[in-house]
Specification:
- The protein is α/β, with parallel strands linked by helices.
- The protein folds into two domains: 143 residues, 3-Layer(aba) Sandwich (Rossmann fold); 166 residues, L-2-Hydroxyisocaproate Dehydrogenase, Chain A, domain 2, CATH 3.90.110.
- 43% of the residues lie in helices and 19% in strands.
- It is built from eight helices and 14 strands.
- A six-stranded parallel β-sheet has the order 3-2-1-4-5-6. It has a three-stranded antiparallel β-sheet with strand order 7-10-11, covered by helices on one side.
- Strand 10 and strand 11 form a beta hairpin.
- Helix 3 packs across helix 8 and helix 4 packs across helix 8.
Length: 315
């Protein structure tokens, strides 16, 4: 029996993620964990989801709790818990608020579900992945974050729209920070197997504007509708399906790197990684010179920010 747990299920993203996860055939049991005081909401959510499962003939078991001890037996634990990012909010303020939520939960998870894979969605996700890794004491391959997977999908969609091709024909990646210093890998971007720079239409693309659109996409959605839900929710399901299906797909997620990318190491950051039931394994890659410089800057930025958060957590 495969059990998947969502921490932070009372949030809009956590609730939608429960719905997307229920479509994964490997998931037998869903546990939704929320904070105390939200019992009525959790009960209503589970009842609503149960009825939707019945409507489509799905036998997935679903339950709720406000007790972290109910993460036991979870093969994957998804952490969406924390304070959602507000438009214009200071990043350090958000990081410290969420680190104080994530750290004690991660500490308990290592005792309650020592064989789990801990999947971080809470922002700022690269820093929260590092906090979860430090406090859970799980092996690095068993802790990862949503990272730049969603950014890569956003860029993929934009490229497909600009070149008038089916989105499945576009293969691209964004690495680095899930944030301002993200690094698009144009050198690894192909359309129908053809390197994008070999297409005549490439010269007409405004690459900087496309990347700026990706960077501001989440902020724009938050301003217009209050939160990002559907894109991240589907991205969560894709990654959980990849883990449980033991698919060995290479997707770009926030992982702890040792020396896989030009000997840059000791930081949790978005990189291509092979994903299966054993966890997440960064793939050694070589980049173009400009991409290496940009990734090195991004990694240093995240490293310093992470150190600041971890030091403040000790106080």
């Amino acid at each position: 029996m495969v059990k998947v747990t969502i921490l932070g299920a009372t949030g809009r993203l956590g609730a939608f993620a429960a719905h997307t996860l229920s479509h994964i055939p490997y998931v037998d049991e869903l546990m939704l964990i929320g904070r105390e005081g939200r019992e009525e909401y959790l009960d209503g959510l589970v009842r609503d989801l149960s009825e939707s499962f019945a409507a489509r003939g799905d036998a997935t078991d679903i339950a709720w709790s406000t007790d972290l001890e109910d993460v036991d037996r979870s093969m994957v634990i998804i952490c969406t818990a924390g304070i959602p990012r507000q438009s214009g909010q200071d990043r350090l303020d958000l990081a410290m608020q969420n680190a104080r939520i994530v750290a004690p939960m991660a500490e308990q998870i290592s005792e309650l579900a020592p064989n789990t894979i801990l999947f971080m969605v809470t922002n700022p996700v690269d820093v929260m992945t590092a906090v979860a890794l430090r406090y859970s004491r799980l092996n690095p391959e068993r802790v990862f974050g949503l990272g730049t997977h969603l950014d890569s999908m956003r860029l993929k969609s934009l490229i497909a729209e600009k070149l008038h091709v089916h989105v499945s024909e576009v293969h691209t990646r964004i690495i680095g920070e899930h944030g301002e210093s993200m690094v698009p890998l144009w050198s690894a971007t192909t359309i129908g197997g053809i390197r994008i720079s070999n297409l005549p239409a490439y010269s007409r693309l405004n690459l900087d504007r496309m990347v700026d659109t990706v960077k501001t996409s989440g902020e724009m959605i938050i301003k217009k509708k209050g939160s990002t839900v559907y894109g991240p929710g589907e991205a969560i399901a894709t990654l959980v399906r990849t883990v449980l299906g033991n698919e060995n797909r290479i997707l770009t997620v926030s992982s702890y790197i040792r020396s896989e990318v030009h000997d840059i190491r000791d930081v949790c950051i978005g990189v291509p990684a092979r994903i299966n039931r054993s966890g997440v394994f960064p793939v050694p890659i070589r980049l173009e010179e400009e991409e290496v410089l940009a990734f090195r800057e991004s990694a240093e930025k995240i490293r310093l920010f992470t150190q600041e958060v971890l030091e403040k957590l000790k106080v």
